[in-house]
Amino acid sequence: MNLFFKKPHFSKHELTQIRDAISNAENCTSGEIRVYVEKNCKAENVLDRAALCFNKLEMHKTENRNAVLIYLAMKDRKFAIIGDSGINAVVAENFWEEEKNILQQHFKNGKIVEGICQCVATMGKHLQKYFPHQTGESKNELSNDVVIG
Hints:
Blueprint: H1 12-26, E1 32-38, H2 46-56, E2 67-73, E3 78-83, H3 85-88, H4 95-108, H5 112-130, E4 147-148
Parallel strand pairs: 1-2, 1-4
Antiparallel strand pairs: 2-3
Helix pairs in contact: 1-5, 4-5
């Protein structure tokens, strides 16, 4: 999906905002959310690149196969959202389209960080329905830090 990015990178404050949004979203679900950002998409198809990054980050190794990756190629103005098999088995067919629409609307308005944070928050609420946070469970299987490729 093409975007209208205006900034080539994120500040430390913006990275903290995104990390905090991920942490907050994961407080209500056992699902795992990651954000991967790089300058250029190193594949012809953005979904192929996102899948490669998903595997490189070993996101498929979560206990419930309930990890989500938001992939951004800033200079190429592309992004993708992909989820693991555990999520895809239970969510509606158009689930990822709804999430992509949240991002795309914010990106068109130049509000990249706000879009990511809102998408992460919405995703956390949706994932809570299928993968609720278990009482006493404090297991964070994947880092909440934004990955810069």
